[in-house]
## 1
Amino acid sequence: MILVTGTAGFIGFHLAQRLVHDGQQVVGLDIINDYYDVNVKYDRLAKAGITREAIAYGRVVQSTTQPNYRFVKLDLTDRDGLDALFEAEGFTTVVNLAAQAGVRYSLVNPQAYIDSNIIGFTNILECCRHHGVKHLAYASSSSVYGLNERMPLATSDNVDHPISLYAASKKSNELMAHTYSHLFGLPTTGLRFFTVYGPWGRPDMALFLFTEAILRGQPIKVFNHGNMVRDFTYVDDIVEGITRVIARPPAGNPQWSGMQPDPASSRAPYKIYNIGNNNPVKLMQFIAAIEDELGQTAEKVMMDLQPGDVPATYANVQDLMDQLDYKPQTDIRQGIRAFLAWYRSYYAHTLGAAAGATQKVKL
């Protein structure tokens, strides 16, 4: 039995559907907060056979279309509710993707990150410890690299200089996980995601924002005057990496040395991986690809680099290749095309989505 948290969210939705398709017994969990339009979250759940009307806090709901998928609305800060769920379900594997996301939002609402990413993650660790979970995989982020400038960014690099509270909370998750791996033998794997995009993506992410603005004939904000580089990673590639990780709980690195400590492994059953496309794309190239696929040119407003943002990300995925025989590889144009096909379909057929965007978007 696998618990996937954050299944009303972007990556969690896709992962749960992949695991269900593979025949796994899955329970999804989400609090369905209003960080962005909750209609998108409820529609993801509906796609998985979980209707809005059936959802009630703390009650496990059976999917109407997938017999091996159930869902529960629950807050990770609800320690008693979480403990009762683990006791009732007997999870063997947990994938924690629930978190307060967003670098920029952490500048204005830091408490949300402490509640979800620190307190909530502590509760996940405690439940895994006390209920015999065999493997905890969890979302970290490329944001942990902070002020690092040596490219590509490698898991062997020091990550002690985060530049946002979001990044600091993800670094904290890695440290907390190592402690539980060391003290209690809990196998944990942290996954540093690099700029994930694709169908059902988050409305606060660049691809969604650019697409929406271009179709409405509105200008787009181009930060750092376009001098940004991102290792855009298609969601299916992320999901494939997670499924491979799930099947390979870490057992500890017998070559690990405290004299030359590798940050990405340990004597304890602990591991960190980058999951990125290993093919960084300049922001202006990314925008040009969207314009080409839409057949429209964006009006661009050049902006300074925002606090908390980094100018470049580029993932070294050698560990992923060597140990899991996998490298993300979806071409950026292929991924953008798939997103735009979903976007046009979603806003053509979903009334009232995105606060009335259906009436405003030119399709």
Note: The mean pLDDT is 92.
## 2
Amino acid sequence: MKRLERLFLTMLVAALVSCNSNDDAVEAGIEIPGITITDDADCCSAEEALQVYNFLQTVKIVSELQTVVDGQYNVFVYTPTGDFHQGYNDVYFVATKRSSGNYVKDFNVNNITPLMTMTKMGMQHSTPVGSSIESFNDGYLAVKHGWVSLLMPTSENGTWQISYSATVLGKQGGVTNADIAVSALPDGQEWIKSFKNGDDTYFLSLVNPGSWKTGTNAIRAYVSKKSSDVKSPYKLAAETFTIDIDPRMPDMENHTSPDNVALKRRDDGSYEGLVNLTMTGRWRIHLTVRDAKGSIVAGGDTLDDGFSSLYWDVTI
């Protein structure tokens, strides 16, 4: 046992040592496939590069969206699955130096613009998009995170493209109108819904319910407002709402669950609450949206069965 403990401590120390040269990195036990660690202030140290490399093993590249900036830098785009689906999608960006493969810290991404072309209707529209692209999880300076929430899947009726701008060490680049495929969610999953308030249309994007389990789960969502120019990305709504939730199981006589907490707006613009899912199966989370004064603006008990016409479906 002591031998195993010593081996574990040796490996842990090696992984935490920060190095500035390739030789030092090898001596510290930090070797990263495809990356040459050099004394370059623009790039990650060995420790930082290892953190980014390990994170990227948990996501998959979207090859359609990668690009080269100024002939010197690669920009790569990742999602959890390497593709896109209807509803909320996390999107990650990484820039590297082509000469060494190491990750660049000084880069920015903006102007993410998804655009759907409705072929039979002869029109185009965008979709909800996160308000900013920021460093991921504080410590990952070389990974930028954003999100898009896609209104519908690709079909014979419509196709999707995405554009974005990238600046790497002051050099400009990006991608324009790259085709992407957007898959439909499986049966029993509906993660994006819309409602009207006056003349405005809003969208409720449920964040990553695919990771939920039985019991109490943090529930997170965004409220976006349709742009007056429908081809421009739909940004977070400036108004503050409260979203009451009433989870029911349609296949189990619509029984509910206790101890659910309404979603309220946080400083970052997201809405968070708690949902208690007491068993596996399909849950319909009925929604009631209230404005800052507490008045109902969408949802509520509006169907013949007494439940809200505004809901998310989640199957666990």
Note: Confidence is low (pLDDT under 50) at residues 1-27.
